[in-house]
Amino acid sequence: MQQPILILGGYGNFGKRIATALTNGRTAAPLPVIITGRDADKAAALVRELPPGMASFACFDAFTDLDQKLAQLKPAVVINTCGPFQDSDYSIPQCCIKHAIPYIDLADGRDFVTGITSLDAEARDNKVPVISGASTVPGLSSAVIEHFSDAFSVIENCTYGISPGQKAERGLATTRGILGYAGKILKPAVCQKIPRYGWQNIFRQDFPVLGKRWMANCDIPDLDLFPQKYAIRNLTFSAGLELAPLHLGLWILSWLVRWGLPLKLQKHAELLLRASNYFDRLGTADGGMFFRLSGQDKGGKAHIRSWYIIALDSDGPQIPTIPAIILARKLASQKCDLIGAMPCVGLVSLAEYLKELQPYKIQTYEQ
């Protein structure tokens, strides 16, 4: 009998989408899951929504009780959605290594994802894969670069960013992560000389279908991973809110932090998230991501490629879940021989990604 996949934070914004995809069999054979969290009522409610017999739940604190629970439940794979990862340690993946259980997380914290290789020797000794960043960045972003890389002899510039729809469900962990570095100086990327600050350097980006939206600096692991992996000379990433008043309001708060006011915005993440929900009626449920690569083609001539992914009707939050879903299926069915601790760079192809997104209202555009 197939061992279940354990989803930490399984009833959260991303966890419930992963659970649904793994159990419903829409794009692959269904797999059983265990929904975990500290709220038994929420976990049980999600189990009732999933196909009968495909889900169960376990109520515990992943940071204190995981060792005992892994010995008891013996899952095939552990998927960790318990963000924000910016301030997390490696106790959860280390526990999975101890029990020789494959580990995947959806982390986007720069230091957390890039530092996961510190567990590589331990993971190799136990012959287990530990994968961090199985999400939009660096999971999808690396897939896009690898898809277009054959058209370039050298990629000189890579500019990309994400703008979710106002009505698309927003997670508290993601909100805390952004607020944690808004207005603070970001660690420079390779070859970067001009300092960058979180949620600053705002600009307008034009998206197919969506139109123009404000964007601002965000901190992601790609800034450390991609210049070395893909020899990219200049890399910039941004994110934006659909509604200008909310985007510009956070931009103003970022200046207050930059000027030295003792504001700890992440401590007010829940309040600010609730406040932003009052503006939902003014926005849409449509979001997107843009990608622009420039450099030289195989003949040494200037070459530019642009790519967009647009999600409608609240389907945008499906996009970050896809690498974890694909990798969990492979690991659970033993169709993947990965060993060691690594960021999720080049582990999922763009073709695999888009195939998994076919059931949703998501389209891509290329220039």
TrEMBL record:
- Recorded protein name is Saccharopine dehydrogenase NADP-binding domain-containing protein
InterPro entries (UniProt xref): NAD(P)-bd_dom_sf, Sacchrp_dh_NADP-bd
Q: Which organism is it from?
A: Kiloniella laminariae
Where the record annotates domain Saccharopine dehydrogenase NADP binding, the positions are 5-114
